[in-house]
Amino acid sequence: MPLSTLNEEQLAAATAPIGNNLIIASAGTGKTSTIVGRIAHLLQNGTEPSKILLLTFTNKAAGEMLARVGRYYPASIVNKIESGTFHAVSYRWLKELNSNISLKQPGELKTLFRSVYEKRQMKRLNLDTEPFSSTYLYEQYSLYQNASLDGFDVWFSEKYPEHKPLIDIYMNIIDDFEETKETYGFVSFNDLLLKMKAHLKEHGRDLVEVLVDEYQDTNTLQSALIDSMTPNSLFCVGDYDQSIYAFNGANIQNIATFGERYPNATVFTLDKNYRSSGSILSLANRVIERNERIYPKKLVVTRIGKNQPPKLLMHNELFDQYQAIAKNIKQTYTPTNDIAVIFRNNASGDGIEASLREMGIPSKRKGGNSFFEAKEVKFLLDVCSLIVNPKDMMAFIHIFEYGKNIGSAVAKEMFECFRHFGEGNLFIGLMYPKVHTLPKLNPNKNMQLGLFDDDAEIGSVTRFAKIPMSERIRSHPILKYPKLSPDGLEFFIMYHDFMNSISNIKQPRSLLIKLIQSALYGFLVELLATQRGRLKSGEIDQERKNLAKERIARKARLLTDLSAQYKEISRFVNAMVLGGNELSEGDGVNLLSIHASKGLEFTEVYVVDLMDGRFPNTKLMSKGGSLEEERRLFYVAVTRAKEKLYLSFAKHDRVKKLDFKPSPFLYEAKMLKEH
């Protein structure tokens, strides 16, 4: 039975009397085993399975826990246990009551909210205070629903006192929005919890026990929903030192005030850590104890054997740091799947991913998009790939389909045209065409006869008369291609001009600099930034667009940095593209944001970019975060390590010309001495 595998503290918690129980389960202390043991204990003592509710933050977590219960109990019992996320359970219960509710995604509701907002014609009201945009107001309303039980006007006025003159208008928009939703039966994810809470307060539900996993991550609304269930017993498992979702509305006070809010509450502490070595735990505790201690706890180390002290890696330059870590990983005997590089900011993930790729080390990324999957990076590499291998039709298509009115089918035909014009050589056909007749499209005919069946199909060059171009372009046979639009021609001109400008360039870094400065890449940046700055309504949010341009530029700089040590374009492309394609999917070093690393463990862990301003992230702290939350993030990151922990920082960023100071957490961890 599951109970027989538990240690003394876990067993005491799992077999606690019916009542209000809080289990403080620090990193690596076996919280899942304790929850599984608790469910088994309830069933063993005759609790009706349908009166047990397990609430988790992912449906996967609930499924895994019940699968473990299923090793000891038949499916006919386990399947009756209510389980899932707060939203999944609420949706299921509400559907039982009212099958007409229609759950809508946030994007759809933002559009509806905007339609209500725009009726007010805010820009014409001549207000002293600039009103919030509809998107921002919607996001604030959504955050309020999760974070407060007061009225929106009270919560909002406290948060934004300068907007008090606008509160009546805002409230009117929200009231209209809610009435429209009610009319059509639309519900948001927040509405699921609000409606279920209201129903339970009036009608209740016969529950013996509610078990809550990751209790430290619950928000005010979720806590109120739990209260409205009025079960005979509560079993909440969490760790206040791992509360890292304040930005998403999580309220650490839920776990901090448990003993005050629930009469006769019992607090259990799981103090035996089965994951990390003693030196790693000591370091984590030295830092986290700087935060206010809500419940006393002292972890007991159970691991025996190797105990490598955590190591500090100091580097003069930011990019050198990523390269050095990649070299370390290349030389380690630890399997790549059991190594993690954990980062606070996505830009750090880009740097390490690029460095690993260059050394042919496989990696997989979670929490932020892959650097090499970014369209702006793929475009740069496709241009380089085509220079190395002019027969690479897919690279050509990937480049040219960005041109307006050039889809993949037209791009493919253009590729064949240029190869025909160059008698098999793409670049001769692009730059110095030898053949001036168009090829035939009919594949059953000899290729030399051409792609097009008769001259009637040849496009008239006069349709491009108003487009400024050199005589060399004007005489190019591609202008006769009937599917080439004026926009398509302008894209070709940009590509032609770029190719003309690099005729003597041999080094990849010089090539990339030229490409990044070209009108061709400028066109792509404008296109992608506009797409990323577009709201659901079709409007362009200038701030989002500018931020997108900044991120694109950062990725381009990183790729340029990476190319500096290569003397040949082919070797650079081979390391970046071909090497990456050969890596087996799903294997490799784990590249994780701290939030994505939660709940995972690895033999070897690198925590990177431990510089003041980056980690702790002062930019996010100024937007409502706190040093305490950043410290909890550090605690979560370092406690992912079982045997080897490396803490890394750099002193300088040569691209941005910035000097860095070490993170205060390195001093708190006693890895550096205070001056």
Descriptive overview:
- Residues 278-599 form the UvrD-like helicase C-terminal domain.
- It catalyses: Couples ATP hydrolysis with the unwinding of duplex DNA by translocating in the 3'-5' direction; ATP + H2O = ADP + phosphate + H(+).
- InterPro entries: DExx_box_DNA_helicase_dom_sf (IPR013986), DNA_helicase_UvrD-like_C (IPR014017), DNA_helicase_UvrD/REP (IPR000212), P-loop_NTPase (IPR027417), UvrD-like_ATP-bd (IPR014016).
- The chain is of the alpha/beta class and 675 residues long.
- It has four domains: 2-96 and 197-270, Rossmann fold (3-Layer(aba) Sandwich), CATH 3.40.50; 105-187; 300-362 and 587-668, Rossmann fold (3-Layer(aba) Sandwich), CATH 3.40.50.300; 375-560, no CATH class.
- It is 47% helix and 12% strand.
- Strands 11, 12, 13, 14, 15, 16 and 17 form a seven-stranded mixed sheet that branches. Strands 3-2-6-7-1-8 form a six-stranded parallel sheet. The chain has a two-stranded parallel ribbon with strand order 4-5.
- Strand 9 (272-273), helix 14 and strand 10 form a beta-alpha-beta unit.
- Helix 1 crosses helix 2 (31-44), helix 10 packs parallel to helix 11 (220-229) and helix 24 crosses helix 25 (542-563).
- The longest helix has 22 residues, at 542-563.
- It is globular.
- The protein starts with 7 loop residues before the first helix and ends in a 7-residue tail after the last helix.
- Residues 443-457 and 578-585 have low confidence and may be disordered.
